[in-house]
């Protein structure tokens, strides 16, 4: 395939990188959270991953990080406040069609979710799967794992049963707070 400036791209033998898997979902969530802040509906931000800088290089463009490593395992990607309640959640994507692999949720993340629930907070996952976006509440995730200790994945049927499909909109793009309202702020 020919692109501007005579750059050639051959898509036949490209290796698939999983490093940025989830970036589209995160971009949509970042737009959603920005919109929530703009209209003063909620204050929710993406947390930066904690890194330890080991060495830097000085150049004419400024300081460049030469070497760094992850300082500690991060908890969940997003946190903030909504209607006086603490919210903490993560965005996950999978290409699996029949199950959501539990290896996508790290042990320290599950422990963090349990602690949030114990303290009366709200926690959940936004899962992109089968070309749909689901809200899966933390209570349902913890209950499934505790009831199915030997399982290595959550069946898609469980996500369909317990989860909520979030349809993309103009603004907010992924209106997960609509579902939070249905679960936690029934009026």
What is the C-level CATH assignment?
Alpha Beta
Largest sheet: 6 strands, mixed
Number of domains: 1
Kindly report how far apart the N and C termini lie.
55 Å
Percent helix, as a range, is 25-40%
Shape: globular
Class from secondary-structure proportions: alpha+beta
CATH architecture: 3-Layer(aba) Sandwich
Strand content: 25-35%
Element-by-element helix/strand order: EEHEEEEEEHEEHEHEH
Q: Give the uncertain stretches in residue-range form.
A: 1-22
Taking all Cα atoms into account, the compactness measure Rg is 19 Å
For the residues shown, what is the average pLDDT? 85
Number of helix segments? 5
**CATH topology descriptor:** Trna Endonuclease, Chain: A, domain 1
Describe the structure.
By secondary structure, the protein is α+β, with helices and mostly antiparallel strands. It has one domain: Trna Endonuclease, Chain: A, domain 1. Helices cover 29% and strands 33% of the residues. The protein contains 5 helices and 12 strands. Strands 3-6-7-9-10-12 form a 6-stranded mixed beta sheet, sandwiched between helices. Strands 1-2 form a two-stranded antiparallel sheet. Strand 9 and strand 10 form a beta hairpin. It is globular. The relative contact order is 0.14. The N terminus is likely disordered.
Characteristic terms for this protein:
187 residues, alpha+beta, Trna Endonuclease, Chain: A, domain 1, six-stranded mixed sheet, two-stranded antiparallel sheet, 29% helix, globular
Quick structural gist:
The protein is an alpha+beta fold.
Topology readout:
Blueprint: E1 2-3, E2 7-8, H1 23-38, E3 43-46, E4 51-59, E5 62-70, E6 78-82, E7 85-93, E8 99-101, H2 107-118, E9 122-129, E10 132-137, H3 138-147, E11 153-155, H4 156-162, E12 164-165, H5 176-184
Parallel strand pairs: 7-9
Antiparallel strand pairs: 1-2, 3-6, 4-5, 6-7, 8-11, 9-10, 10-12
């Amino acid at each position: 395939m020919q692109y501007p400036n005579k750059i050639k791209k051959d898509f036949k033998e490209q290796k698939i990188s999983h490093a940025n898997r989830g970036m589209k979902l995160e971009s949509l969530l970042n737009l959603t959270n920005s919109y929530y802040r703009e209209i003063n509906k909620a204050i929710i931000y993406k947390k930066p991953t904690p890194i330890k800088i080991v060495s830097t290089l000085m150049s004419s463009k400024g300081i460049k990080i030469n070497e760094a490593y992850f300082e500690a395992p991060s908890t969940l990607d997003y946190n903030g406040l909504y209607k006086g309640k603490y919210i903490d959640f993560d965005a996950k994507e999978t290409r699996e069609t029949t199950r959501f692999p539990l290896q996508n949720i790290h042990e320290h993340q599950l422990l963090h979710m349990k602690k949030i629930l114990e303290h009366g907070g709200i926690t959940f996952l936004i899962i992109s799967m089968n070309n749909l976006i689901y809200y899966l509440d933390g209570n349902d995730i913890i209950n499934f794992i505790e009831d199915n200790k030997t399982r290595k994945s959550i069946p898609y049927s469980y996500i369909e049963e317990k989860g909520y499909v979030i349809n993309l909109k103009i603004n907010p793009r992924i209106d997960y707070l609509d579902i939070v309202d249905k679960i936690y702020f029934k009026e």
